[in-house]
């Protein structure tokens, strides 16, 4: 029951990220060709890609993190190659979660 709610919440948050992407893309805020958007934070803040996954229909979400500057950024990219910076910040702590084996109802 809890796994289903977490998945539903995650799917809902990805849907909201998609709405933000569409709204920002129309307004031209923090959006543009992927290489130009990434150039604003990847090299200057020494961030590297740490996670990637699907976000909504045909979009890709990426997370970039820097151990050096403790900064992070999240982007969403469309199939056309346009990306939007969804969120960024400083002060990141990573966690090592121990997950139950697949198929375990716990």
Mean pLDDT: 78
Q: Which oligomeric form is depicted?
A: single chain
Instruction: Determine the strand fraction and express it as a percent band.
Output: 25-35%
Assign a percent range to the helix content. 25-40%
Q: What's the N-to-C terminus distance?
A: 10 Å
Low-confidence stretches: 24-28
Structural class: alpha+beta
Number of helices: 2
Radius of gyration: 15 Å
Overall 3D form: flat
Strand order of the largest sheet: 1-5-4-3-2
Q: N-to-C SSE series?
A: HEHEEEE
Compute the number of strand runs. 5
- Count of discrete domains: 1
Q: In this structure, how is the largest beta sheet organized? A: 5 strands, antiparallel
Question: How is this structure best described in words?
Answer:
The chain is of the alpha+beta class and 106 residues long. The protein has one domain (2-90). Helix content is 30%, strand content 30%. It contains 2 helices and 5 strands; from the N terminus they run αβαββββ. It has helices spanning 2-27, 34-39; strands at residues 31-33, 48-54, 60-65, 71-77, 82-90. The model is unreliable at 24-28 (pLDDT under 50).
Write a concise keyword list for the protein shown above:
alpha+beta, about 110 residues
Mind sketching the topology for me?
Elements: H1 2-27, E1 31-33, H2 34-39, E2 48-54, E3 60-65, E4 71-77, E5 82-90
Antiparallel strand pairs: 1-5, 2-3, 3-4, 4-5
């Amino acid at each position: 029951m809890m796994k289903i709610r977490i998945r539903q919440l995650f799917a809902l948050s990805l849907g909201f990220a998609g709405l933000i992407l569409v709204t920002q893309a129309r307004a031209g805020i923090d959006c543009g060709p992927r290489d130009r958007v990434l150039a604003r934070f990847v090299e200057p803040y020494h961030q590297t890609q740490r996670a990637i996954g699907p976000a909504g229909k045909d979009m890709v979400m990426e997370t970039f993190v820097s151990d050096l500057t403790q900064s992070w950024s999240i982007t969403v990219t469309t199939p056309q190659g346009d990306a939007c910076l969804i969120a960024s910040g400083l002060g990141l702590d990573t966690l090592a979660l121990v997950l139950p084996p697949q198929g375990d109802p716990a």
